[in-house]
Amino acid sequence: MFDGAGRFVSAILRPAKRPSGAEIRPHLRRLVRAIQINWPNIRILLRGDSPYCNPQVIDWCRANDVDFIFGLAPTTTLRKHVADLEASTTARFEASAKTGKVRRFKKFVDGAASWSRVERIIARVEVGAHGGDIRFVPRLPSRRSNPAPDEARGKAPQRRPQRRFRPSKAYRRASRRLDGNEAYAARASQLSMHEGSSLQNT
Fold first, then answer.
1. Alpha carbon distance 148, 67 (integer Å)
2. DSSP state of 72
3. At a CB cut-off of 8 Å and minimum separation 6, what does 191 contact?
4. Cα angle for residues 74, 194, 101 (degrees, 5° grid)
5. 72 pairs with which residues across the strands?
6. Phi, psi (5° rounding) for residue 125?
7. What is the pTM of this model?
8. Measured distance CA(133)–CA(189) in Å, rounded
9. Which end of the chain is more exposed for a tag (fewer CB within 10 A), N or C?
10. Could you tell me the end-to-end alpha-carbon distance of the chain, in angstroms, rounded to an integer?
């Protein structure tokens, strides 16, 4: 896990398989509690890829007033919501000069059978020279006044945690010069944390 600036926060050594909500939730509970003890007024935004978008984690975040933006793995049901948009976006690209990409967005309400409630979902349909790409992400609560850049673009943060694993050595070196109060300014009003499944023991 990394903070919004890419600094290393924590890691768990575990088997290299998709984590379940029962595994993720206790780790989040301990981590969020530790942060809130030091900065009780800070708002926390959790960002993660599709393994974190499960009912146990979403319900825990909502019950504990923790904001989240998790990627949703595409399913047949989700893709049905954007079938027409995907076709029209492809047609727009084919009719264009094909020098860039065509992106379009749609929002709808849906939820898996295992979820405790339906969620507002944003879909981003992108078509370019290398084909199409569709991403789904649950919408954040409307009370958030400053959405994360990825949220504003309807982008699920699926690959960013893995990329941010690479510079962690530099942050470990820097940590020798920083204590906890310096690493996270106490005056900050929001902490964005990125979760990823790359921190695994294979």
1. 11
2. B
3. 3, 4, 35, 39, 42, 43, 44, 45, 184
4. 50
5. 136
6. -105, 125
7. 0.64
8. 34
9. C
10. 17
